[in-house]
Design a protein that fits this description.
Elements: E1 5-9, H1 14-24, E2 28-33, E3 44-47, H2 50-59, H3 62-67, E4 75-78, E5 84-88, E6 97-100, H4 101-110, E7 115-118, E8 122-128, E9 131-136, E10 142-144, E11 146-149, H5 156-161, E12 166-179, E13 188-194, E14 197-204, E15 207-215, H6 226-237, H7 244-253, E16 258-266, E17 271-272, E18 275-277, H8 280-283, H9 291-308, H10 312-334, H11 337-341, H12 346-358, H13 367-376, E19 405-406
Parallel strand pairs: 1-2, 1-11, 2-7, 4-13, 11-18
Antiparallel strand pairs: 3-6, 4-5, 8-9, 8-19, 9-10, 12-15, 12-16, 13-14, 14-15, 17-18
Amino acid sequence: MRDLTILISGGGIAGPALAHWLERHGNHPTIVERAPAIRQGGQAVDFRGAPQLDVLARMGILDAVRRAQTRMGDIKIVDARGRRLSSLPSEAFSGEVEILRGTLSRILHDATDAEYVHDDSITSLTETPAGVHVTFERAAPRTFDLVVGADGLRSKVRELVFDEAQLRHLGMYGAIFSIPGTYDLDHEGLMYSAPGRCATIMSTGGRTRAALDFAAPPLTYDHRDRHAQRTLVETAFAGLDWEIPHLLDEMRRADDFYFAPAAQVVLPRYSSGRVAVLGDAGYGPGPGGMGTGLALIAAYVLAGELAEAGDHETAFTQYENHIRPYVEVCHRQAQGADKYLVPQKKSQIWRRNQMMRLLPYMPGKSLIKRMTDRAAAAITLKDYDAPPGSPRPARRPPRSGTAARPAGRR
């Protein structure tokens, strides 16, 4: 299938990656993104295993990603007085290539000529004989051949179309934000734990970020209210020593503060009618589940199946058949991360620190890397007919249309 107009909701990682491949296959993507501009900073994301690095190479961005990688070293685990207790080896968390999310987003943005509509969001999706009629908060209604939700954990597309979605809470929440100074760190980190809470400071190339994670059951809060989110973090970390009071002060001032639950998206199907979901919007695995690598591989697969199939229903079915087993591997990889990152007893923290202290001297010291690499390699990439350097199609506007029935509700 070629010459399709395809609306992608979400301009972070999965959306631009999909747009890149859709263009390579002769289609016309438009990306709508709630944020007014490309988001900067954010947490570090990583790639590991041959398939994840291969998809970066096929996109032609592997060298750019490597040039911008954080080159993060080990994270020192310290006590409340700053004394080193053990270390978390970089291979346990940074993969083969680690890069800041905002930097990766910029690289992906530059790899596509798609139309971007910033500071806007979808309000309704209605399937018509001509395609999917879409209304927006700001822009005029438009009709597209297909719609893909790549809009993250709180996907608006998933909310509008997929009634069966479930969020599987993984037992913790986390905040991340930039802080001034380097804490005398050079591509290193510091981590301090108290029962049910973990604070991490990471410095790469003069840029320093802090992460505050805490164990909690599902909480009720407004996901757009940053003040309420900061209050949740402040309450969780109240009364702790080390650098916590200073980090909480910096958190209140940070303009790139980001807060989210550790959760997995569980869907019985990844498409409905002319609408599909991609990445975290459809099957986000949560922290430690290789979500970024999964999203880029899934974008490659979805665009490739659309190119090979004669109709979108066949393409969406093949996309799901190919990607779901990998999703299940990534989900399993992330489960139990709370027991390691935010142990709720002092004895559990002690055992974790002892294991990390002894790991460099143990015969199985590379066990963590072998396990994660095996999970990352649990998919074989098909070869779709889109050689590097394929010309991108001239952009054409989508058709206008009128509402007929809600997309995906047949």
